[in-house]
Amino acid sequence: MFDGIFLKNYLKNKGVSKVGYTAINAEDFPQYNFAISLVMKLPKECIRAIIDEDYKYYWMRFHREADRLKEIAIDAEKLIKNNGYDAFALTLQRNGFDMDKLLSKIPYKTVATSSGLGWIGRSALFVCEEYGSAVVLSSVLTNMPLEIGTPITDSLCDDCEECQKACPVDAVNPRKWNSRLSREDIIDIEACSQYVMDQYKAGLGCSKCLSNCKLTQKYYHSL
Hints:
Blueprint: H1 4-14, E1 18-23, E2 34-41, H2 44-51, H3 55-82, E3 87-89, H4 108-114, E4 119-120, E5 126-127, E6 135-142, H5 162-166, H6 189-201, H7 208-212, H8 214-220
């Protein structure tokens, strides 16, 4: 029987670490009323590379994992269509991702938190209990009926401020995330994006907020 359980098992067998479902109502994609969140953990070597400031290796591995997840999302789109429903893998290109603003039409993070897979950290990165911020995200839109998860609407970061302390341009605000806030309430996205772009163009990087996250470190040091 092709249903949400079958689809979740299919995606996990493909290598997705966490899968969740949520309802959506998006102006840009009115034909779809459900979204599938795909969360895939980054290899621990990625975290090690940030710690060692080996950004060439980090970006190579990060983009490799992101490309892998994109192909899985496209495979899921095909599978859903082959079973009589419509689907649309929300790749960065299809999602209208703006590299300068680090923003897309339907943020993957919003789909993930609405699906109950995690929350938004002080750094505005997605955070989950199992892997911290050491993840890549994607989404698939569909009209396939799915049993939606319970949204997470408040930060579970407690009093941890490690990502805020790690930011080299003081872009992270002290205020903790909740779903009623805008992104600008918790991070100076202009300062962050400008620094990230400058570093990337220079063949360097940042991602200190990712590697210093307490839950990322817990995952990194786990057996």
